[in-house]
Design goal:
The protein has 72 residues and is α+β, with helices and mostly antiparallel strands.
Length: 72
């Protein structure tokens, strides 16, 4: 896989729309850079991998909180 991905690539990998991928970038949730004369967005593969890892960690935390809440 290439080092830098287009937002279309990111959307395909995450199985979301291109506009949702753009929203992640614009919000700062997914780090990206603008390159070229037209300011095309690119996401480094490493940044996407870290984003996915963070989402897994966030989900684990939410599941653990939900479990502990049921035991109260």
């Amino acid at each position: 896989m290439p080092r830098f991905l287009t937002l279309t690539d990111v959307a395909e990998i995450l199985q979301i729309s291109s506009s949702q991928a753009y929203a992640l970038v614009r919000s700062g949730e997914l780090p990206a850079i603008q390159i070229g004369g037209r300011g095309q967005w690119r996401v480094e593969q490493l940044m996407l991998d870290q984003y996915i890892d963070n989402k897994y960690a966030e989900t684990r935390r939410l599941v653990e909180e939900a479990r502990s809440g049921k035991n109260d």
